[in-house]
Automatic annotation (TrEMBL):
This is BOLA1 protein. Signal peptide: none annotated. Residues 47-66, 111-137 are annotated as: Disordered. One of its GO terms (cellular component) is mitochondrion. It holds the Pfam family BolA. It comes from the Eukaryota. Belongs to the BolA/IbaG family. Gene3D superfamilies: Phosphatidylinositol 3-kinase Catalytic Subunit, Chain A, domain 1.
Length: 137
């Protein structure tokens, strides 16, 4: 599975926001969004979790849940390098990454990092294309 690019917009965490701050997970989003939220909550015990469905920006059919961004703030990330934090997120979503989830942007922070700067960095620009496009070259 591809891990980026995810968003066609330069705005941070833009797209349907499917979870709120402070652990209030909400019920919005489709089945995959709810699964992502539930699995990350169970595995990482986040103090803050945002799940953003970027699928509509990637030309799939309506309701397709293929491209997501997550912002996970967890004390379990303390002392871990960024790569290991991402591995924990990917491990929690292993089944989804092997199937319906095509792309995942991960922002993984400790509660201290989030407290000192509670903003998500801008998502990378969408480079366009899809697996269905014929590649030139």
């Amino acid at each position: 599975p591809q891990t980026s690019p995810l968003s066609c917009s330069p705005s941070p965490m833009r797209g349907p926001l499917l979870a709120a701050a402070g652990g209030a997970m909400g019920g919005a989003g489709g089945p995959l969004a709810r699964t992502i939220r539930a699995k990350l909550t169970a595995a990482l015990q986040p103090t803050h979790l945002e799940v953003r469905d970027d699928s509509p920006r990637h030309g799939g059919p309506p309701g397709a849940e293929t491209h997501f961004g997550v912002l996970v703030v967890s004390g379990l990330f303390a002392g871990l390098p960024l790569l290991q934090r991402h591995r924990l997120v990917h491990e929690a979503l292993r089944a989804e990454l092997a199937g319906p989830l095509h792309a995942l942007q991960v922002i993984a922070r400790t509660p201290e990092q989030w407290q000192s700067d509670p903003r998500a960095p801008p998502a990378p620009p969408c480079l366009g294309g899809s697996k269905r496009d014929k590649r030139r070259g």
